[in-house]
Amino acid sequence: MSIAAKIEGETSFLGVVRDYYQLTKPTIVMLMLVTALPALLMTGKAPEPSTGFIALAGTWLAASSASAINHYIDRHVDVVMERTRSRPIPRARVTPARALAFGILLGILSVLLLGLMANWAAAGVALASILFYTLVYTWWLKPRTPQNIVIGGAAGATAPLIVWAALTGELGLAAWLMFAVIFIWTPPHFWALALFRKEDYAKAKIPMMPVVAGEDSTRFQMLVYTLLLIPTSLSLFWVGANGLLYLAGALALNGLFARHAWTVFRRKDVADAKRMFIFSNYYLMILFAMLFLDAALTLILESVA
Predict the structure, then answer these.
(1) Do residues 34 and 127 share a domain?
(2) What is the CATH number of the domain that holds 132?
(3) Mean pLDDT over the full length of the chain
(4) Of 43, 55, 96, 253, which has the maximum CB count within 10 A?
(5) How far apart are CA 19 and CA 168, in angstroms?
(6) Cα 214 to Cα 178: distance, rounded to the nearest angstrom
(7) What is the pLDDT of residues 96-105, one digit of tens each?
(8) Where is the domain boundary, 126, 153, 170?
(9) What pTM value is reported for the model?
(10) What are the phi and psi torsion angles at 270 (to 5°)?
(11) What is the pLDDT of residue 305?
């Protein structure tokens, strides 16, 4: 085999790997894993490394499964929208049937890994998350109602529940509060995207809030959800799940997020919506990193006390 042919073959193989990796929506899945990390330490004791790995791996597989199946269901929409037309299925780099099979395989692996190596409670939460995201949100809600992302946001909030269940076999209050934070964060985060991608959604006939209810109504609702996020995120401190380190970080982040929401509401500038969308990703990532660090500090202090 010539060197040129060998390079071409390697490039082709790497291209296939990259395409299937893109089906998992790696950026979104990595953010979900960040939200899962605090649950590793907030149950009251540090888990065994193998148990923690299984919990995170099962969560990654579940989120990746839902993402790949989402690509299959949304293939006709993705080819229309500028934001999504470069995905593997619209570019004909992965066939719809293979994307669906890949997603189902990842889902089966997630359920089996969690069920056999952790417990079936975690496996059940993972399966419910996959089915909710693919069937309830993507297939049913998304093309039918502007409340799609409000209800459908529950699927993206399950990472702490999966990990908590994998470690304890049940769902504690702190896990549900972390779920609530992500659930309430999702509408202002996604509607910020929908504001500066409004024409894209209109062209694809997706009834996102700015398309159906108008931009002013969307901005007002973004502000309301952002204000609701403040007491929801602080509730983790109020119930004693975390300490002053998290409280300080949460107050600062909520202040910045509220400022973005107020600016979007008051100035009605698409550029402000884009800035809010970008910040919202950092908000969630840093907030849950603070949760993790606070829980880690608490365990360290307790171990030396």
Answers:
(1) yes
(2) 1.10.357.140
(3) 93
(4) 55
(5) 36
(6) 30
(7) 999 999 999 9
(8) 170
(9) 0.94
(10) -60, -35
(11) 67
Closest to 167 measured CA to CA, from 37, 28, 303: 37
Please write the tens of the pLDDT for every residue from 123-155.
999 999 999 999 999 999 999 999 999 999 999
Query: Domain check: are 34 and 114 in the same one?
Result: yes
Two tokens, residue 174? 């702190």
Statement: residue 1 has pLDDT above 50:
no
Three-state SS at 24: coil
| Total tally of structural domains belonging to the chain | 2
Statement: residue 119 has pLDDT above 70 = yes
Asked whether residue 9 falls in the same domain as residue 136, the answer is: yes
Per this entry, what is the length of the chain? 305
Distance CA 236, CA 287 (A): 11
Q: Show the tokens assigned to 141.
A: 């809600």
- pLDDT attached to residue 9: 44
Q: Do residue 162 and residue 194 come from a single domain?
A: no
| Rounded CA separation 270/79 (Å) | 24
Q: Of 144, 170, 196, which closes a domain?
A: 170
DSSP string, 203-271: HTT---HHHHT-HHHHHHHHHHHHHHHHHHHHHHHHTTSS-HHHHHHHHHHHHHHHHHHHHHHHH--HH
Q: Residue 252 belongs to what domain range?
A: 172-305
84-to-81, 89, 98, 112, 266 alpha-carbon distances in Å: 5, 10, 18, 31, 30
Residue 7 predicted with pLDDT over 80 = no
